[in-house]
């Protein structure tokens, strides 16, 4: 298996936007109607998330490219990102939860029953967690800095609505909060000792990865200090977890380091360890 880089531009590949059916497997019809309401002006949803006249096209194409990544075993480099978006709410730059749409597509259209989602973004994917909280067929594992935006995924387990988790944990949600200043050694140790065994024990048919490069030391939003090497190792180890692996871009805001990190990560996916 070789992971391809999939870009939503003509010189690489072409793909179709996600359909309404694809999106409604995750988001409510009312939310989608509101999100894609035609407007000639920028409309702010919250303090850091907005829509413009081209938002509907971009969001549908980003989700469609993520579905193509699942079909091909690829890495979808898309904007807007998705892992903060819940069934009924956009936030944190995220409008459509691309990786959740991809997981439901894989189950409905490809016959893949058990899906594991690994989230390496520096921020907790609260939207993805909420969508799959009560679903035993989808394992969600997040390594993220805490306490940082959005303030969820902390060491004391909570439900997506903020209530204490009965028994202290969710059967198919695993949050691994890490302190600011975490470097390669501690991050990879947490991955090897907690995240990797959890996914391996789940025995997924497909692993989907929310790849956030905002954990890199050069990223303007990063409270951690990961190097290039960490992303290669994360990708290489993840590639050995399931017969099928696909990935989608989440955060990553240093335009100078981002292309290099994508290349390094794809190389890691293509060299399982």
Task: Show the helix and strand layout.
Elements: E1 4-6, H1 20-24, H2 29-35, E2 43-46, E3 49-51, H3 55-72, E4 74-76, H4 98-109, E5 115-119, H5 126-132, E6 138-145, E7 173-178, H6 184-202, E8 206-211, H7 228-238, E9 245-249, H8 258-269
General description of the model:
The protein is built from 8 helices and 9 strands. With 273 residues, it is of the alpha/beta class. Strands 1-4-9-8-5-6-7 form a 7-stranded parallel sheet, with helices on both faces. Strands 2-3 form a two-stranded antiparallel sheet. Helix 7 (228-238) links the parallel strand 8 (206-211) and strand 9. Mean pLDDT is 90; it is low at 7-11.
Number of domains: 1
| Proportion of residues in extended strands | 15-25%
Tell how many strands the DSSP assignment holds.
9
State the helix count: 8
What name does CATH use for the topology?
Arginase, Chain A
Span between termini: 13 Å
User: How would you describe the shape?
Assistant: globular
Spell out the helices and strands N to C: EHHEEHEHEHEEHEHEH
Low-confidence stretches: 7-11
Q: Under the CATH scheme, which architecture would be assigned?
A: 3-Layer(aba) Sandwich
- Give the % helix: 25-40%
Q: Determine and state the CATH class.
A: Alpha Beta
Average residue pLDDT: 90
Instruction: State Rg.
Output: 17 Å
Strand order of the largest sheet: 1-4-9-8-5-6-7
What profile does the largest beta sheet have? 7 strands, parallel
């Amino acid at each position: 298996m070789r992971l391809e880089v999939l870009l939503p531009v003509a010189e690489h590949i072409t793909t179709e936007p996600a359909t309404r059916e694809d999106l409604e497997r995750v988001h409510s019809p009312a939310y989608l109607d509101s999100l894609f309401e035609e407007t000639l002006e920028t409309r702010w949803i919250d303090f850091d998330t907005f829509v413009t006249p081209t938002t509907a096209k971009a969001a549908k194409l980003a989700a469609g490219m993520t579905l193509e990544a699942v079909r091909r075993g690829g890495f979808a480099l898309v904007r807007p990102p998705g892992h903060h978006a819940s069934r009924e709410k956009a936030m944190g730059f995220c409008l459509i939860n691309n990786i959740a749409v991809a997981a439901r597509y894989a189950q409905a259209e490809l016959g893949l029953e058990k899906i594991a989602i690994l989230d390496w973004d520096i921020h907790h994917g609260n939207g993805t967690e909420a969508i799959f909280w009560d679903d035993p067929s989808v394992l969600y594992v997040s390594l993220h800095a805490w306490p940082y935006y959005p303030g969820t995924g902390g060491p004391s387990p909570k439900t997506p609505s903020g209530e204490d988790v009965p028994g202290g944990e969710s059967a198919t949600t695993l949050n691994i909060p890490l302190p600011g200043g975490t470097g390669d050694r501690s991050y990879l140790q947490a991955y090897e000792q907690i995240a990797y065994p959890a996914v391996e024990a789940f025995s997924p048919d497909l692993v989907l990865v929310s790849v956030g490069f905002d954990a890199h030391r050069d990223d303007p939003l990063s409270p951690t200090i990961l190097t290039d090497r960490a992303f290669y190792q994360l990708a290489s180890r993840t590639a050995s977890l399931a017969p099928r692996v696909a990935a989608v871009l989440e955060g990553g805001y240093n335009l100078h380091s981002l292309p290099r990190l994508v290349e390094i990560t794809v190389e890691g996916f293509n060299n399982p360890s």
